Amino acid sequence: MRDDFNREISYLRISVTDLCNFNCEYCMPEGIEKKDHSDILRIEEIENICKVAARNGIKKIRLTGGEPLVRKGILSLINKIKSIDEITEVAITTNGVLLDEMAKDLKAAGLDRINLSLDSMDENVFRKITRGHELSEVYKGLESALDAGFENIKINTVLINKVNDNEIADFIALTKNKYEVRFIELMPIGSTARYAKEHFFSADEVLKRYPQLELQENTDKSSPAAYYKLPNHKYRLGLIRPITCNFCSNCNRLRLTADGKLKPCLHSDMEIDIKKIACNDELLEKSFLSAISQKPEKHHLDDGKYIIRGMSKIGG
Ligand code: SAM
Ligand code: SF4
């Protein structure tokens, strides 16, 4: 399905819950309000939405949150989505802690890919960012995912000035023979926008510090990352620059929030409420077509226009 700017829309990112077992300082404002169960899409509703989405061109689905692995029924959801003919890939983005107990079941359910968010490899800094959680739990989860047979796990690291910018070399070192790493620029979103402005660290600064990084050919035009590599390193380093380098012209995604709002763009407050019609295929199809046709050409972050919903409420 193509939008008005000739972009093929084939990727749906679904936030399966607003809740999280972490409380990262750049993502979750303190004292987050808990939603009523009835306001959140049921697992069967998400399944049906995925079926209709697949009939309208969606091929890849990523489950995120909040923390997707705290959502009850996540394994059966993955399994059901995997059984939809048109869907070629089901992935999750996770903070990794629950992988220790769930990795084998996730593999058995048919999960194809894992992106793991890791913002520091220093125990104290990790505790500060996550407001009190232990790095060792994430490492345990990562080990279990590898043991369960997940390959090509990508590490996503948000660049945070004066918090983790002194670890850039350590993260780049992981690309030597362990993981693909992607540095993400901190985005001003929701009530943590002020923190983002105070702690913004440009991905271009990474290139200045490491001029030996070689730009790689872009094999996936819809990926928001530009890829680099150090000579003799096995894996790539991705730079995701929503602020300093707009990648909207290749955007292929829609988003669905945990409370059932279909969003044509992460950085726009435009949303279509599909909670009440989640089991009505005809109306759902109309909503998908409408979301695709309303997809903005680009975001307006550089004009200082920020959205109101926080990242944990949209699904990063
Ligand atoms: N809990 C899961 C996790 O942390 O991977 C999934 C949800 S989290 C919102 C998804 C991704 O969004 C994480 O990699 C997180 O670092 C990123 N994120 C959250 N707030 C962000 C912000 N303001 N700017 C850039 N990335 C952000
Ligand atoms: Fe939770 Fe992920 Fe947000 Fe951290 S970044 S608070 S782990 S949703």
Automatic annotation (TrEMBL):
GO MF term (any one): GTP binding
Pfam (any one): Radical_SAM
Residue ranges occupied by any Radical SAM core domain in the UniProt entry: 4-226
EC number per UniProt: 4.1.99.22
GO biological process, one term: Mo-molybdopterin cofactor biosynthetic process
Amino acids binding GTP: R13, R62, T93, K154, R253, L254, R255
UniProt-annotated binding residues for S-adenosyl-L-methionine: Y26, G66, S117, M187
Residues bound to [4Fe-4S] cluster 2: C248, C251, C265
Pathway annotation: Cofactor biosynthesis; molybdopterin biosynthesis
Cofactor note: Binds 2 [4Fe-4S] clusters. Binds 1 [4Fe-4S] cluster coordinated with 3 cysteines and an exchangeable S-adenosyl-L-methionine and 1 [4Fe-4S] cluster coordinated with 3 cysteines and the GTP-derived substrate.
Record flagged with keyword S-adenosyl-L-methionine: yes
InterPro entries: Aldolase_TIM, Elp3/MiaA/NifB-like_rSAM, MoaA, MoaA-like, MoaA_NifB_PqqE_Fe-S-bd_CS, MoaA_twitch, MoCo_biosynth_MoaA/MoaC, rSAM
Key words of the record: 4Fe-4S, GTP-binding, Iron, Iron-sulfur, Lyase, Metal-binding, Molybdenum cofactor biosynthesis, Nucleotide-binding, S-adenosyl-L-methionine
Record-linked CDD domains: Radical_SAM, Twitch_MoaA
Residues that bind [4Fe-4S] cluster 1: C20, C24, C27
Gene3D superfamilies: Aldolase class I
Family that this chain belongs to: Belongs to the radical SAM superfamily. MoaA family.
Known role: Catalyzes the cyclization of GTP to (8S)-3',8-cyclo-7,8-dihydroguanosine 5'-triphosphate.
NCBIfam families documented for this protein: moaA, PRK00164.2-1
Protein name in UniProt: GTP 3',8-cyclase
Originating organism: Acetoanaerobium sticklandii (strain ATCC 12662 / DSM 519 / JCM 1433 / CCUG 9281 / NCIMB 10654 / HF) (Clostridium sticklandii)
